[in-house]
Design goal:
Blueprint lengths: L1 H12 L4 E8 L5 E9 H11 L1 H7 L8 H11 E5 L2 E3 L1 E8 L3 E9 L6 E6 L10 E8 L2 E7 L5 E5 L2
Parallel strand pairs: 1-8
Antiparallel strand pairs: 1-2, 2-6, 3-4, 3-7, 5-6, 7-10, 8-9
Helix pairs in contact: 2-3
Length: 159
C-alpha cells in the first residue's frame, strides 16, 4: 500500500528527476543492504550515455538491460565508502516496469563502521535539476541526504 502511494505521488512529480537510495545496516551486523529506485525512462536515457553499444542498438527497438549491465551502471554511478574504503556490492534482486526500476544489493561492511561516504552521479550528466535522495540507517545512525549535480557526495562520521 505504501509503495503504491509513494509511486503515485512520484509519478505526479515527474518530470522532476530523482532517484532514491536506502542504505540499512543493523547494529552489530557486517552486512549492508542497499535499495535503489528511479524512473525507468530516466534510467534508459542515462544508460545510453553510459553504454555506447546499448545506445547504438537502442534505435532498433526495445532492448533489455540485463543484471550484469545494471550492476556495471550502478557501480559506475554510485560509490559507497566505509572508513574511506570503497566497498562493492552484489545484486540480490532487480525489478522494473514501465514506470520505475529498482535494484537491491548486498554489501560487505564492518560491524562498527567509523565513517560513511556516498557519491551518487545518477542522471547528473542529463538533468541540472536532478536530486538523488539517500536515506541512511547504519547501526543507530539515521539521516536523509539530498545530492545534486553540483553536490554529488557527502561524508559522515558514524561514531
Amino acid at each position: 500500500m505504501l509503495k503504491t502511494i509513494i509511486l503515485c505521488s512520484l509519478l505526479g512529480l515527474h518530470p522532476v528527476h530523482m532517484s532514491m537510495t536506502t542504505i540499512t545496516q543493523a547494529p552489530g551486523s557486517d552486512s549492508m543492504k542497499v535499495f535503489f529506485r528511479m524512473f525507468y525512462d530516466d534510467f534508459l536515457r542515462d544508460y545510453k550515455l553510459f553504454d555506447s553499444v546499448y545506445a547504438a542498438r537502442s534505435g532498433q527497438g526495445a532492448i533489455e538491460v540485463n543484471e550484469e549491465q545494471l550492476g556495471r551502471y550502478f557501480r559506475e554511478k554510485v560509490h559507497i565508502f566505509i572508513n574511506n574504503k570503497l566497498i562493492d556490492g552484489k545484486i540480490t534482486a532487480t525489478a522494473h516496469d514501465n514506470f520505475e526500476i529498482s535494484i537491491t544489493l548486498q554489501f560487505k561492511s564492518l560491524k562498527l563502521p567509523g565513517s560513511f561516504k556516498i557519491r551518487n552521479r545518477v542522471l547528473t550528466d542529463l538533468y541540472s535539476d536532478q536530486e538523488n535522495m539517500i536515506y541512511i540507517e547504519i547501526d543507530n545512525y539515521h539521516e536523509a541526504i539530498r545530492l545534486t549535480p553540483d553536490h554529488d557526495s557527502e561524508k559522515r562520521k558514524l561514531k
